Amino acid sequence: MTKIPTLYYFNSRGRGEGTRLLLTLAGVKFNDVRYNSALTPEIRSKTTYGTLPFYEDDDIQLAQSLAIESYLAGKFGLAGESPIERAKILSVSQAAIDFVLPIFHSDTDEKKNRFKNDTLPRLLNSYERLLIDNRNTTNEGKYIVGNKLSWADVSVFYVVDFLLFKGFGELVNQYPALNFAKSSFESIPVINDYLQQRAQNNN
Ligand SMILES: N[C@@H](CCC(=O)N[C@@H](CS)C(=O)NCC(=O)O)C(=O)O
Asked: According to the model, what pLDDT value does residue 171 have?
């Protein structure tokens, strides 16, 4: 890799944080370009669909957060070892979007209540159950799919971290397996460094 990879996103976690976490985990230095205002026509025209995140490195220019994450997970050995594992990992990562998107679209009290009392517990229960079902003496409950760290664990961390950031701590704290997986992930030294640095930005 000769050119430093670049991630273009807004100055927030949103759909860009999964990519930042994956690159950090892989120990890859990258340009973290963060926009603070609406996209200009010039930026839009540079991206495939006129939206962010958008990613580029020596080999590829790519839009769509899941596709970018899938590409990086494959490149850095975090995408699973078999078709079944790969599918399970994608399933967990795709569910992460279901967790997060309604936060932005819940613009009435009714929608906010439905998200908090129905959608969110249903999805948190699903992750909790997957972690418990996958727990064994080898992975000690650290991983949601298989016996090694994967993109799915990045997605689990992303969701829990984001929900805490958005003030759902009381609910999230009711899921011990999920909280254990989150703590394991954030104790990885490169991730710990990244989180400390991110705290200064507070986004
Ligand atoms: N499905 C796309 C969604 C892309 C998307 O809608 N991005 C938003 C930010 S999260 C965006 O670029 N909004 C600015 C705009 O549309 O003007 C993905 O996951 O990457």
From this structure: 96
